Amino acid sequence: QKEVEQNSGPLSVPEGAIASLNCTYSDRGSQSFFWYRQYSGKSPELIMSIYSNGDKEDGRFTAQLNKASQYVSLLIRDSQPSDSATYLCAAYGSSNTGKLIFGQGTTLQVKP
Amino acid sequence: ETGVTQSPTHLIKTRGQQVTLRCSSQSGHNTVSWYQQALGQGPQFIFQYYREEENGRGNFPPRFSGLQFPNYSSELNVNALELDDSALYLCASSRLGSGNYQETQYFGPGTRLLVL
Q1: Residue-level pLDDT at A1
Q2: Closest approach of chain A CAs to the CA of B17, in angstroms?
Q3: Which of A62, A79, B8, B73 suits B52 as a labelling partner, its CA being 20 to 30 A distant?
Q4: Out of B56, B100, B106, whose CB is closest to A99?
């Protein structure tokens, strides 16, 4: 079992729709979770961090965390073609070594 | 722009050679972490440096080594390069706060290494 799992996609949504990206993790000791966006050929760029159960909103983005189900999600409202990228879910392991554990990423395609 | 810089941007080496990659951390950050990202995969943790010492290490052989300098910048050295070392190498800086709390990591632009 992978430590952080994501569906690789591609996830295709029409412009203006809600994109829903999901992630599960295996280490129950993980406390900090992150979503990064990565455009092709570029480095990961932080979108959201979330530490507590529930929802966290920032503009068009909402991160959701459910520690009991070991589940993290990212919703993108009013999706734009510029949102087309790979979205990486990451978590700190419980060992506190600075190791961010990444999923393989979900490719999102927003079609005009 | 995160304020994390890396050099060089691209590099071509041959199998068996050695390479040194460099990273300058964001102002106010005291840790540097290195990751290897193969095509189509998520980044894989190599190690983290804090106070000029290795704070944690991923599943990479000893030919991957690093340094952190007093100004918090860092180097990644890879000896005896193999074809599978071809990847995007990412540096991320962050703060290790009081109580050893790991804060958010911010990535530099990366160095793309090709081993022939």
Answers
A1: 62
A2: 25
A3: B8
A4: B56
Q: Which of B36, B105, B106, B112 to mutate to test the interface with A (most CBs of A within 10 A)?
A: B105
3-state SS class at A28 = coil
Q: What is the pLDDT of residues B10-64, one digit of tens each?
A: 999 999 999 999 999 999 999 999 999 999 999 999 999 999 999 999 999 999 9
Predicted confidence (pLDDT) at residue B1 exceeds the cutoff of 80: no
Going from the C-alpha of A97 to that of each of A20, A63, A85, A86, B7, the distances in angstroms are 30, 25, 29, 26, 25
Q: Which of B33, B107, B111, B114 to probe the A interface (max A CBs under 10 A)? A: B107
Say yes or no for a CB contact (<8 Å) between B107 and A43. Answer: yes
Sign of the torsion angle spanned by Cα atoms A96, B80, B22, B71: positive
Spell out which residues of chain B touch residue A103, defining contact as CB-CB under 8 Å.
Answer: 42
Q: Which is it for the CA torsion A105, A110, B4, B6, positive or negative?
A: positive
Summarize chain A as % helix, strand, coil (round to 5).
Answer: 5, 55, 45
| Unique residue bearing structure tokens 């703060």 | B95
Chain B nearest CA to A43, separation (Å): 5
pLDDT tens, residue by residue, A49-83? 999 999 999 999 999 999 999 999 999 999 999 99
Per-residue pLDDT at A112 exceeds 80: yes
Which residues lie closer than 8 Å to A98 by C-beta, 6 or more apart?
Answer: A92, B31, B33, B45, B48, B50, B55, B56, B94, B96, B102, B105
**Tokens of residue B8, six digits:** 């060089």
